[in-house]
Write a structure and sequence with these properties.
Layout lengths: L2 H15 L3 H15 L7 H16 L5 H13 L2
Length: about 80
């Protein structure tokens, strides 16, 4: 039997047999957090991302190397 199936079956059995409410709540928290997005963005952040994507599609951006060169030149003037 596949080890992942064994683990799942073991967990299911332990959850079914558990009467420990704190344990079950902790498991629920783990499951809930694993299903959430890594980052929760607000509307302003989502809009900024969309604007950036549109700018990229239009070609309105600079390559990394160009930005680094410009920054190095700017730092020399400081």
């Amino acid at each position: 039997m596949d080890s992942s199936i064994q683990i799942k079956n073991n967990l299911i059995s332990r959850i079914k047999n558990s009467r420990d409410l704190n344990f079950l709540r902790a498991l629920q928290t783990i499951f809930d957090s694993s299903e959430q997005s890594l980052y929760e963005l607000n509307e302003q952040q989502m809009n900024s991302i969309e604007i950036g994507r549109e700018e990229i599609q239009k070609g309105d951006f600079k390559e990394h190397e160009q930005v680094m060169t410009e920054m190095q030149e700017w730092l020399k003037t400081r």
